[in-house]
Design goal:
Layout (H helix, E strand, L loop, with lengths): L1 H20 L8 E5 L2 E14 L9 H10 L6 E12 L4 E4 L14 H7 L9 E3 L5 H4 L15 E5 H8 L1 H6 L5 H14 L3 E4 L4 E3 L2 E5 L8 E5 L5 E3 L9 H4 L11 H18 L2 E3 L8 E7 L2 E6 L2
Parallel strand pairs: 4-5, 5-6, 6-7, 11-12
Antiparallel strand pairs: 1-2, 2-3, 3-4, 8-9, 9-10, 10-11, 12-13, 13-14
This protein binds zinc ion.
The site of zinc ion has 6 residues, from α4.
């Protein structure tokens, strides 16, 4: 009863906050067809992050101009969290599970938003994780550490699993992110009996393939959907609607291996622009769906109309 009350309270206060400050984020799911797939983007709410996380080492003038253009001049900014749900004739596949209820009060809204959209989470058959950060993984368990989707199969990149399970996670992350390791291990422990390790080229179902996009984390993966000019669910390879595209060489605080993340961004941007594939970005403005165009010596994100 206690946990239910707490959850109800959190949902209610978040709803009040959202209604006052962010009416556009409490949006209905964004659904479209891609090839043989039905794709739906559902919001998990948003994160509130220090603006200083956004490429602190970048040249001051360019950085300030860009943050002004992004409307991010305050101490903190809101980062949307867009979860992709893919329906095939046999499967309902979730890419990442959101924050759950132990990360930030503004996030962890996935299950409520799915229910509001008439989607039964018990019907989810497969879950693919792009990486092990809280806003992507911690929604796997409820407040009692039980799996939210106990019948689903889970897919995690081998390198990602090894990183969070191993010594490097405890030694290699800044002290303020020590909780990320505890949380990743808690959620990994819950999925352990149902998880399959994945690597580049693996197909989860026909036409849904894993691509390696490391750097944001050691084993970060993206998901490629066949059909038309292609679609890539890019996780956190491209996190900011301006910085990631105009200045792919800038280094956001959240990237574990900054130089590798830069190389991955450049490779992914080149591919998206060349192939004219669709992109779904987890932290891009909701629903995070769009395409990438070349602009000057870099790129720009064009949100789908
Ligand atoms: Zn993220």
């Amino acid at each position: 009863m206690l946990t239910l009350d707490r959850r109800t309270f959190l949902a209610a206060s978040a709803a009040t906050f959202a209604a006052r400050a962010l009416p556009a984020v409490a949006a209905a799911p964004h659904a479209f067809k891609h090839g043989s797939f039905d794709v739906t983007v559902v919001s998990d709410g948003h994160l509130v992050l220090p603006t200083s996380f956004l490429a602190p080492g970048a040249p001051t003038l360019e950085r300030e101009t860009l943050l002004k253009a992004a409307g991010q001049t305050g101490e903190q900014y809101n980062s949307p969290t867009n979860i992709t749900l893919i329906r095939t004739s046999n499967d309902l596949i979730l890419i990442d599970m959101g924050s759950g209820d132990r990360f930030m009060p503004t996030a962890g809204k996935l299950w409520d938003n799915l229910r509001a959209a008439g989607i039964d989470k018990a019907k989810i058959t497969k879950v693919v994780f792009t990486h092990g950060h809280p806003d992507h993984l911690w929604g796997a368990v409820d407040e009692l550490d039980d799996l939210v989707t106990p019948d689903a199969a889970f897919y995690v990149g081998t390198a990602e699993w090894d990183f969070w399970s191993g010594e490097n996670a405890t030694r290699g992350l800044p002290a303020e992110r020590a909780g990320f390791v505890t949380g990743a291990r808690r959620n990994y422990a819950a999925i352990k009996g149902r998880v399959k390790m994945i690597k580049a080229g693996d197909e989860i179902v026909s036409g849904l393939r894993i691509i390696e996009t490391p750097g944001h984390t050691q084993g970060h993966v993206s998901i490629e959907l066949a059909g038309g000019d292609g679609l890539i669910v890019g996780g956190d390879a491209l996190t900011h609607p301006l910085i990631s595209f105009q200045y792919p060489d800038w280094k956001p605080i959240a990237d574990h291996v900054p130089d590798q993340a830069i190389a991955t961004r450049r490779r992914l941007l080149d591919r998206l622009a060349t192939d004219r594939s669709k992109l779904i970005g987890f932290h891009l403005p909701y629903p995070g769906v769009g395409t990438v165009e070349r602009k000057d010596a870099a790129y720009r994100f064009v949100a789908a109309a």
